[in-house]
Amino acid sequence: MKKSKWSLLLTIVLVLSVFLSACSGKKEEKANGNTSSNGGGSKEKVLNLMETSEIPYLDNIMADDQVSLNLANNVYEGLYTLNEKDEPVLSGAAEEPEEKDGGKTWVFKLRDDAVWSNGDPVTANDYVFAWRKAVSKDTATQYSFIYQVAGILNADKILNPEDPMYNKTDKLGIKAIDEHTIEVKFAGPTSAKPYLKAVLSFPTFYPQPEKFVKEQGKQFALEADKALYNGPFALTKWEHEKGWVLEKNDKYWDKKNVKVDKINVNILKDEATRINLFETGKLDRTSISAEYVDQYKDKKDIFSTVPESSVFFLRMNQKNKALANKNIRHALDMGWDKKQLTDVLLNNGSVPAYFLVPSKFVNGPDGADFREKNGDLNKGDAKQAKDYWEKGLKELGVKKLDLTLLNYDTDTAQKDAQFIKNQLEKNLPGLSLKIKAQPFKQKLKLEENMDYDISYAGWGPDYPDPMTFVDMFVTGGSHNEMNYSNKKYDELVKKASSETDLKKRWEMMQQAEKILIEEDAAISPMYQRGYAFITKSNIKNIHNHSFGGDYSYKDWDVE
Amino acid sequence: MVRFVLKRLLYMLITLFIITSFTFFLMKLLPGSPFNNEEKLTDQQKFILNEKYGLNDPVPVQYLNYMSNLVKGDLGVSFQYDNRPVSTMITERIGPSAVLGVEATIIGTIIGLILGIAAALKHNTSIDYLSSLFAVLGISIPSFVFAGVLQYYVGVKLGWLPVALWDGPKYHVLPALSLSVFVIATVARFMRTEMLEVLGQDYITTAKSKGLSNLVVIWKHTIRNAMIPVVTILGPLAINLITGTLIIEKIFAVPGLGFQFVSSIQLNDYPVIMATTIFYSVCFIIVILIVDILYGVIDPRIRVAGGKG
């Protein structure tokens, strides 16, 4: 009896060890040489890169996050692609569109040498299929709004559950004229949207092979071999939660200009691990946070900072009586040192913001950066802040103010908020600022309900135009979330959205920004985010996009 | 024995039902939606998205739908990862987590037992003090500290083993070691205490006076009896490790389940939260059952027939 019980124990141990060895055996088979290319010469050029998360969507229409969008930008292709200066250049379209109906219709000739990775040609119908899929309620992609941004005919009605045209996707303004020609109809004049071609470079506008997608059904784009690729690279291996491999797409029409043969991407969530892998040569490039910047910033051949187009700012909720006072808002905006925040705390290439529309984001009709004319707004000092503060307190008839700062719950945001609290409490006597950190979703909810005083918020562009920032604060806008209302501002934004004189349009947006910040101090801009990177010195031609996918690996090279 | 197991299985189902229902309603109290660009969605978009995933229905209806699908074995699809079936997501990721967990448990138990037994037999000697010191450190220092130290010194400075990633047996060494420290410490501590207690029992004195050799006394009468509490804690400990550990998997870039559970909660990925909870509960309940059965194997004094567990 005793013996049999011991043998039970033995059996369990045996089963476990068989299980164990079976699993590790499989892993061994899968493992293959992560050989780095650094030898150079005629050897194949390999990049070893990283992402911080698994690919959420390989389906370009569903893509709504940095990882998916970046992948889509490299394995698929639409009518336009962004070049190193973020200008839209022809890719899937053979030539610039022929304009009809006074610019309300564009007719695109497609490249006839563009094919999917199975050899099928990319046809006009693939575009029609994909665009209709994108606005369908069954797809329900979070980026469907970009069809409204582009002003594709009927997109707003098809996407509105209360409209009789809701979900009638065949009413969308796109038609196949012949196998390689599409006709796109717009709701308004295209000349009012200088950013239109850049928007068309967004992955939600890429074609999809109808026949293949329908064959795959629910399996479409769930694995590397369940999708077809028409971009410079093809996804050849995808191990969930571990990483994936991109290889040069042999069927790509412009493959002679693709320099890199293979890109290994590992999912690395921990920063110290990324640095250790970089140090041991297993990783070619990684972003680094403030605490590592000092260690690397003098190594000029590997260190770089890249400005990004996201702007962070303090929302001031005007439902709060004190914050409805313009002088108080001015004081809160000027009462802390923005430069110290970016240079000491963030230390990653972020720059202090005295604006809403970021710098190096878009150029106007005159070719100049949006910031060139508007410059820095409300760049005051502590003394000015104090004057505003005292005036404001007097108007309110109080001596003290207790306010709460709603914050993200991340470590860096906590440090930022603590810094701002110290500065403001020092410079604005009588102020007591409490910090309330909340998980992201909870913070969003409080903002949506306008249940906060001041909040640490941010905004990244949805399309390459100042309007993506400026129209956020119109009265009653769904992203206003702070009860801000200024008739002059509303009117400028409204006019600018339909103005076809691009110079006037530009000036209207600049004027609106001035009202928002200089006149009303509706928000207190904090910083334009930057990233610090370390990159192996033999990797060349890296550039990043301020919109859509971050990178175009097509241009990258390994020496 | 068979009746005992059947009865326990029935209890297991009831427990599972309660856990599932409880989690479902608790989860619905989480603020926000499962959509990652929530701050940018318009009300119309939110409506369309909720419609697609059946989130416009009242919560009780959602609950009934979920339970009826669950009975059919359908755990639903993830919000976060493009309609990927949740069951596939778990099976894809449990492999590495389980391998790592089993490795850490085995290493930890073996070393822990040796340390614990040695400490008890050499009570109040330097071996005992060293073993106790190790146990205290192992329990109080979090595993990510060991992981960071091992990764930096063994991986980067010495270059003996890979820094991270998951490509073959040698990639397992550092994460398994980091994870096992806590197991070693826990097992050693329990084993030492229990051994000391058992060694003071009358039957040990009897056994010794009967003239049994030291080895027989220790092996047959001391260690087996002292094992019982160790087995009790080992079950839950192993399950914690096998179902994935967020931090160690993150540090060594192990493609396991640990991260999935945490991120699904942060992102309100309801089906994944539910499925991982159910999965975890099932593992846990099964292990508790196994532990109960093992009691009988190790210690014949414990009879399970009348036990309610």
TrEMBL record, chain A:
Main location: other
Residue stretches making up the Solute-binding protein family domain: 92-478
Example GO molecular function: peptide transmembrane transporter activity
Protein transport listed as a keyword: yes
Subcellular location: Cell envelope
Matching InterPro entries: Peptide/Ni-bd, SBP_5, SBP_5_dom
Pfam families, sorted: SBP_bac_5
Gene Ontology process terms (BP): peptide transport
Gene3D superfamilies attached to this UniProt entry: Dipeptide-binding Protein, Domain 1 (3.90.76.10), Dipeptide-binding Protein, Domain 3 (3.10.105.10), Periplasmic binding protein-like II (3.40.190.10)
Keywords: Peptide transport, Protein transport, Signal, Transport
GO CC terms in record: ATP-binding cassette (ABC) transporter complex; outer membrane-bounded periplasmic space
Domain of life the protein comes from: Bacteria
Identification of the protein by name: Oligopeptide transport system substrate-binding protein
Organism name: Fictibacillus solisalsi
UniProtKB/TrEMBL annotation, chain B:
Membrane topology according to the record: Multi-pass membrane protein
Database matches in PROSITE patterns: ABC_TM1
Recorded GO CC terms: plasma membrane
Pfam families: BPD_transp_1 (PF00528), BPD_transp_1_N (PF19300)
Key words of the record: Cell membrane, Membrane, Transmembrane, Transmembrane helix, Transport
Keyword Protein biosynthesis included in the entry's annotation: no
Similarity comment text for this entry: Belongs to the binding-protein-dependent transport system permease family.
Main localization, broad class: membrane
Species assigned in the record: Fictibacillus solisalsi
Top-level taxon: Bacteria
Record-linked SUPFAM superfamilies: MetI-like (SSF161098)
The name this protein goes by in its record: Oligopeptide transport system permease protein
Positions of transmembrane segments: 9-27, 98-121, 133-153, 173-191, 230-252, 272-298
InterPro entries hit by this protein: BPD_transp_1_N (IPR045621), MetI-like (IPR000515), MetI-like_sf (IPR035906)
Localization in the cell: Cell membrane
Claim: Oxidoreductase is one of the keywords in the record: no
ABC transmembrane type-1 domain span: 94-291
Any single GO BP term: transmembrane transport
